[in-house]
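Sorry to interrupt, but I need a hand with the structure work. Go ahead and set the record down below:
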Amino acid sequence: MHESIRRKLVFRLGIGGIPLDVKGTPDLAVPLDPALQRFLVPTTGSPGFSLEIHARLPPVGGRSRHLFRTPIWKLSDIPSGFDFDLGNRLHLRVDRRWRRGVLGLAGSGAAPKSLCAFRHPLLELLFLHLLPSRGGLLLHASGVEYEGRALLFVGRSGAGKTTLASLWKQA
């Protein structure tokens, strides 16, 4: 279901007008969800955010301070910026200016043969910060196109956004 992009492992996603460069090592396959294929854009010009993917991350040097925890991820302040523990030993580390990040496995152990770098909540965490800093907004919503206009159904998980959009399309 996923397509591995091997080449030099350099590609760019353009989401919300923000170019996100992804770089990795040739021995690490980066499965890209087919739904994200339409966001691939040419790698020209400067990135809005640059993400390096590594099979393993080195330990955090210096002190870390726990800042926030959700059921899905937790956030710590580290000397170089911020560390997001995404579960399954995945960590995203970003600098304090939110220009560069490193994604990889924490701790020791065998390097994975592939790493699905674009699963929830990675993109959500990146764009929760990147979009507002560039005048955008991330919404938890479902939507439909009606008479050339977009209608958004915004709400909490389980509120019926997708059901409402499906019913709208059937009508």
Observations:
- The chain has a mean pLDDT of 80.
- The first strand starts at residue 3 and ends at 5.
